Amino acid sequence: MQSFTGQLMKESLSPVGRWLNGKLLDIQDGNMSVEFIVREDMSNPMGVLHGGIAATILDDVVGTMVYALGREFAYTSVNLNCDFLHAARTGETIIAEAKVVRAGKNIIHVEGMIKNPAGLIIAKCSSNLIQTGFKIPPH
Asked: Coil, helix or strand for 4?
Protein backbone atom coordinates (compact mmCIF):
# COMPACT_ATOMS: atom_id res chain seq x y z
CA MET A 1 0.00 0.00 0.00
CA GLN A 2 2.96 2.34 0.42
CA SER A 3 3.01 2.76 -3.36
CA PHE A 4 -0.36 4.58 -3.07
CA THR A 5 1.04 7.28 -0.75
CA GLY A 6 0.04 10.72 -1.99
CA GLN A 7 -2.83 9.36 -4.09
CA LEU A 8 -6.58 9.50 -3.68
CA MET A 9 -8.06 6.20 -2.52
CA LYS A 10 -10.48 5.92 -5.47
CA GLU A 11 -9.06 2.43 -6.15
CA SER A 12 -9.64 1.18 -2.59
CA LEU A 13 -10.85 -2.39 -2.20
CA SER A 14 -13.55 -0.94 0.08
CA PRO A 15 -16.56 0.58 -1.71
CA VAL A 16 -17.03 2.91 1.28
CA GLY A 17 -13.34 3.83 1.05
CA ARG A 18 -13.83 4.75 -2.61
CA TRP A 19 -16.84 6.93 -1.70
CA LEU A 20 -14.88 8.65 1.09
CA ASN A 21 -11.99 9.09 -1.40
CA GLY A 22 -9.33 10.25 1.04
CA LYS A 23 -5.71 10.87 0.09
CA LEU A 24 -3.26 8.43 1.64
CA LEU A 25 -0.60 10.52 3.41
CA ASP A 26 1.43 7.78 5.07
CA ILE A 27 1.27 4.10 5.89
CA GLN A 28 3.76 2.18 7.97
CA ASP A 29 3.55 -1.08 9.92
CA GLY A 30 0.69 -0.38 12.32
CA ASN A 31 0.21 3.34 11.50
CA MET A 32 -1.70 5.14 8.78
CA SER A 33 -2.85 8.68 7.99
CA VAL A 34 -5.37 9.81 5.38
CA GLU A 35 -6.51 13.31 4.40
CA PHE A 36 -10.16 14.04 3.59
CA ILE A 37 -12.08 17.11 2.46
CA VAL A 38 -15.44 17.39 4.25
CA ARG A 39 -17.93 17.35 1.38
CA GLU A 40 -21.55 18.49 1.52
CA ASP A 41 -22.71 14.85 1.23
CA MET A 42 -20.72 14.11 4.43
CA SER A 43 -22.40 16.90 6.38
CA ASN A 44 -25.42 17.25 8.63
CA PRO A 45 -28.01 20.06 8.25
CA MET A 46 -25.73 22.40 10.25
CA GLY A 47 -23.02 22.10 7.58
CA VAL A 48 -20.59 20.12 9.74
CA LEU A 49 -19.19 16.61 9.43
CA HIS A 50 -21.95 14.15 10.34
CA GLY A 51 -21.07 11.95 13.34
CA GLY A 52 -21.96 8.81 11.40
CA ILE A 53 -19.57 9.80 8.63
CA ALA A 54 -16.82 10.57 11.15
CA ALA A 55 -17.35 7.06 12.58
CA THR A 56 -17.28 5.64 9.04
CA ILE A 57 -13.99 7.42 8.30
CA LEU A 58 -12.47 6.08 11.52
CA ASP A 59 -13.73 2.54 10.91
CA ASP A 60 -12.51 2.51 7.31
CA VAL A 61 -9.07 3.90 8.14
CA VAL A 62 -8.41 1.53 11.06
CA GLY A 63 -9.72 -1.39 8.99
CA THR A 64 -7.53 -0.51 6.01
CA MET A 65 -4.53 -0.21 8.30
CA VAL A 66 -5.21 -3.69 9.74
CA TYR A 67 -5.58 -5.05 6.20
CA ALA A 68 -2.19 -3.51 5.36
CA LEU A 69 -0.56 -5.58 8.12
CA GLY A 70 -0.52 -8.40 5.56
CA ARG A 71 -2.25 -11.06 7.63
CA GLU A 72 -3.43 -14.27 5.95
CA PHE A 73 -7.06 -13.81 7.01
CA ALA A 74 -9.33 -10.76 6.93
CA TYR A 75 -10.41 -8.98 10.11
CA THR A 76 -13.72 -7.34 10.93
CA SER A 77 -14.75 -4.83 13.59
CA VAL A 78 -16.49 -6.21 16.69
CA ASN A 79 -16.88 -2.77 18.26
CA LEU A 80 -16.19 0.87 17.53
CA ASN A 81 -16.33 3.37 20.38
CA CYS A 82 -16.32 6.96 19.13
CA ASP A 83 -16.10 10.33 20.85
CA PHE A 84 -17.05 13.46 18.90
CA LEU A 85 -15.18 16.46 20.30
CA HIS A 86 -15.25 19.33 17.78
CA ALA A 87 -16.93 20.24 14.51
CA ALA A 88 -15.39 20.15 11.05
CA ARG A 89 -17.23 22.33 8.54
CA THR A 90 -18.03 21.53 4.93
CA GLY A 91 -14.99 22.33 2.78
CA GLU A 92 -12.47 21.85 5.60
CA THR A 93 -9.56 19.45 5.41
CA ILE A 94 -9.33 16.75 8.08
CA ILE A 95 -6.71 14.09 8.74
CA ALA A 96 -7.60 10.63 10.03
CA GLU A 97 -4.85 8.69 11.80
CA ALA A 98 -4.91 5.06 12.89
CA LYS A 99 -2.53 3.03 14.99
CA VAL A 100 -2.30 -0.52 16.28
CA VAL A 101 -2.22 -0.63 20.07
CA ARG A 102 -1.95 -4.41 20.35
CA ALA A 103 -1.87 -7.01 17.59
CA GLY A 104 -2.76 -10.45 18.94
CA LYS A 105 -3.19 -13.62 16.95
CA ASN A 106 -7.00 -13.29 16.69
CA ILE A 107 -7.84 -9.80 17.96
CA ILE A 108 -6.22 -6.50 17.03
CA HIS A 109 -6.89 -3.44 19.21
CA VAL A 110 -6.62 -0.12 17.37
CA GLU A 111 -7.15 3.58 17.97
CA GLY A 112 -8.10 6.26 15.48
CA MET A 113 -8.29 10.04 15.53
CA ILE A 114 -9.58 12.74 13.19
CA LYS A 115 -7.86 16.13 13.49
CA ASN A 116 -7.91 19.38 11.60
CA PRO A 117 -4.59 20.69 10.22
CA ALA A 118 -4.05 22.77 13.40
CA GLY A 119 -4.21 19.58 15.48
CA LEU A 120 -7.67 20.10 17.01
CA ILE A 121 -9.25 16.68 17.65
CA ILE A 122 -12.56 16.34 15.78
CA ALA A 123 -13.28 12.72 16.77
CA LYS A 124 -11.47 9.71 18.18
CA CYS A 125 -12.17 6.01 18.49
CA SER A 126 -10.99 2.71 19.83
CA SER A 127 -11.92 -0.55 18.15
CA ASN A 128 -11.27 -4.26 18.29
CA LEU A 129 -11.09 -6.27 15.10
CA ILE A 130 -11.32 -10.04 15.07
CA GLN A 131 -9.91 -12.50 12.58
CA THR A 132 -12.49 -14.03 10.24
CA GLY A 133 -12.40 -17.28 8.33
CA PHE A 134 -12.08 -15.36 5.04
CA LYS A 135 -8.66 -15.92 3.52
CA ILE A 136 -7.34 -12.80 1.78
CA PRO A 137 -6.65 -13.62 -1.88
CA PRO A 138 -3.14 -12.85 -3.12
CA HIS A 139 -2.89 -9.73 -5.30
From this structure: helix
CA distances from 64 to 30, 46, 51, 96 (A): 10, 30, 20, 12
Cβ contact 63:75 at 8 Å: yes
Instruction: In whole angstroms, give the CA distance from residue 110 to residue 135.
Output: 21
For the segment 25-62, what is each residue's pLDDT rounded down to a tens digit? Answer: 999 989 999 999 999 999 999 999 999 999 999 999 99
What phi-psi label fits residue 25: left (phi over 0), alpha (psi between -120 and 50 degrees) or beta? Answer: alpha
For the segment 73-125, what is each residue's pLDDT rounded down to a tens digit?
999 999 999 999 999 999 999 999 999 999 999 999 999 999 999 999 999 99
In the DSSP assignment, the letter for residue 14 is S
pTM (predicted TM-score): 0.94
How many whole angstroms from its chain centre is CA 107?
18
Q: Which of 44, 5, 2, 46 is nearest to 23 (CA)?
A: 5
Sign of the dihedral through C-alpha 84, 86, 90, 94: negative
